[in-house]
Amino acid sequence: MNMHTQIAKSIAEALNSELSVNEIQNLLEKPKNLDLGDVAFPCFTLAKKLRKAPHNIASDIKNKLNCDLIQEVQVVGGYVNIFYQQPTITQQVLSQIVKEKNLYGTQQEPKGNVVLDFSSPNIAKPFSMGHLRSTVIGNALANIAEKNGYKAIRINHLGDWGTQFGKLIVAYRKWGDQQTIEAAPIEELLKIYVKFHEEAEQDDTLNEQARTAFKALEDGDKETLALWQWFRDESLEEFKTIYQLLGIDFDSFAGEAFYNDKMAAVVKELEEKDLLVKSDGAYVVEINNMPPCLITKTDGATLYATRDLAAAFYRQQQYDPKKIFYVVGNEQSLHFNQLFKVIEKMGNDWSKDLQHVPFGMILKDGKKMSTRKGKIVLLADVLTEAIATAKQNIEVKNPNLMDKESVAHQVGVGAVIFNDLKNDRLHDIEFSIEQMMNFEGETGPYIQYTYARISSLLEKADEQNYEVSSETLGEQGWPVILLLEQFPKVIANAFEQADPSQIAKYALQLARLFNKYYAQNKVLVDDSQRTSRLAFCQCVSIVLKESLTLLGIAAPNKM
C-alpha cells in the first residue's frame, strides 16, 4: 500500500467513511511548496454534504487522524496539510528500492496478453520521420505494459497491400531498373513512385493502368505477385536496419496482405447478422451518430475497414488479449470509432477492450510530411546525424572515453526517442533537428548524463553494500524521496492512460531534483551518513535507468 493510499485510508476513518478511500485519493493534492506540507486534503466538497464550514471539517479530521506516517498536521483555511515522518518514509522507500532493484514498480502477477499494433510503415516507401511517433510510442507502451504485468505482443501491421502497388508496378515496368533498385531499394522505388504521380497529372491513363495492375495482383497473377513480393522483401530488410538502430523488435510482421483470405468470413458474418446495407454503390454498416462504415464496394472489392475487422478477429482468436492498442495518428480517429462500433454491433463484448492510441503529427514548416511529392525527412538520416553529433560532443568533453561508438549510438538515438516521448502524444510536433540535437535541458542525454554521473560516483565509492538508515537526507534530499516513492504509481498511470510522456516527464523531474541535491551535498565525505547517501544515489540511478529502459532508451554507465 503506497503512502497516498495509507493517508487516504486514515482520512476515511477520521470522516467515518463519508467518502471512500478512492474518492479521498482523487482529492489529495500536492501543495505548491513543502512549507505547506507534503500532501493536502481540501475539505470544500464535504462542506455541503456535512453542512459544516470547510475549516471546521479540516479541524475535526486533524483531531482524529491517526497514522504512523504522519509527523504533523496543520489546518490552513479549508485544507488539512499533512507533513510526513521523513525518517520512517526515507528508510521505507530506499530499503524497498535497494531490495527490488530494477523490479521496483513491477507488477509481479501475470495479467495476460496485450496486443500492440504500431509502427506499420508502407512497403516501398521510405521510413520517414512521420513514422517515428507510432514506432516509439508503441514500443514504450509495450514496455510499460510488461512492467504492469502483461505479456506484450508487438505487431507491425505493414502497409503491404492496396492500390498504390498498382501504381508502383506500372512505374517499375515503365522506368524501373532491377540492378539500380537492388542497390538502393527504397530510394529507387520512391523515385519511380514520385515520377508516377508527376506523370499521372498529365496523363490520366496511367491511373487506369495502375487499377488494372492492382486487379491482376488481387487475382494472383504470378508475375505481378512476384514483383509485389520482391518490393515487400527488399523494403522489410531496409526497415529492419532502422528497427535495429532503434533497438525495437516485433513478434509479427503480418501486414494488410496477411488478411486477404480472412475478410470473406467477416463479410459473410455481417450479412448473416443483417448488418450490411446497400448505399451509393457500396455495402455499409450503419452506426448511430457517425457516418456509415464502408465494408465493400458493389464489385466486391474490400475496403480498409474490412481488413481491420479481419485483423481484430484474428488477433482475438490467436492471442486472447486483455486489450488491443492501435497506435495510429489522430487523423484515423473516426475509422477506429467506426471499427469498434461495428465489432460491438456484431455482438462481441470484447470490443470494449480495443483502444485507439492517437497522436499528433510531426510537421515540417507547419505542414504534414508527404511521400507523394518526395518532401520527406528520412529517419535513418536523422538518427545518423544524431549519433554523429553525440560523437562530436564526446570527442570534446570526454576524448578518452572507452567504447565511444557504442555510447554515441546510445546517446544519439536516445536524444531522438526522448524528444518525441517527452511531448504529450496528442500534440503536433514541429520537426527541428536543432531541438533534437540540443543535449542540455529537457532532453534524453541530460537524463543519461545524470545516470552516468551517479554510476561514476558509485564506482568511485567502491562499496558492495549500501546500508539504509532512518537518517534524513536534508532539504534537497526529501523531494527526491517523495518522487522515488511515486514511481510505481507513475508506471500504473502511464499504462492506464496509454501515455509514455508521463514516464519521460517523471525522469526529467527526478534528474533535476537529484542534480539540485548533488550540487549542495558532498556524497563521498567519510562520515556516519556516507552509506545512506550512497544508498540514496544508488536508488536514484536504479529508477532513472528503469525509466529510460521503459522509454526504449539505453543508459550508458559513462559519457
Tags for this entry?
559 residues, 55% helix, globular
Walk me through this protein's architecture:
- The chain contains 21 helices and 13 strands.
- The chain has 559 residues and is α/β, with parallel strands linked by helices.
- A 4-stranded parallel beta sheet has the order 5-4-9-10, with helices on both faces. Strands 1-3-2 form a 3-stranded antiparallel beta sheet.
- Strand 2 and strand 3 form a beta hairpin.
- The longest helix is centred in the middle third of the chain and has 25 residues.
Q: Tally of extended strands?
A: 13
Mean pLDDT: 93
Q: Report the biggest beta sheet as strand number plus sense, adding barrel if it closes.
A: 4 strands, parallel
The SS-based structural class is: alpha/beta
Total helices: the number is 21
Strand content: 5-15%
| Backbone shape | globular
Low-pLDDT regions: none
What is the strand and helix layout of this fold?
Layout lengths: L2 H12 L6 H7 L11 E4 L1 H7 L3 H11 L5 E7 L2 E6 L1 H15 L12 E5 L14 H16 L3 E5 L7 H13 L2 H6 L1 H18 L2 H14 L3 H25 L16 H10 L3 E4 L2 E4 L7 E5 L6 H16 L3 E4 L6 H13 L8 E3 L5 E3 L2 E2 L10 H19 L6 H18 L7 E2 L2 H5 L6 H18 L12 H23 L4 H20 L9 H22 L8
Parallel strand pairs: 4-5, 4-9, 9-10, 11-13
Antiparallel strand pairs: 1-3, 2-3, 6-7, 7-8, 11-12
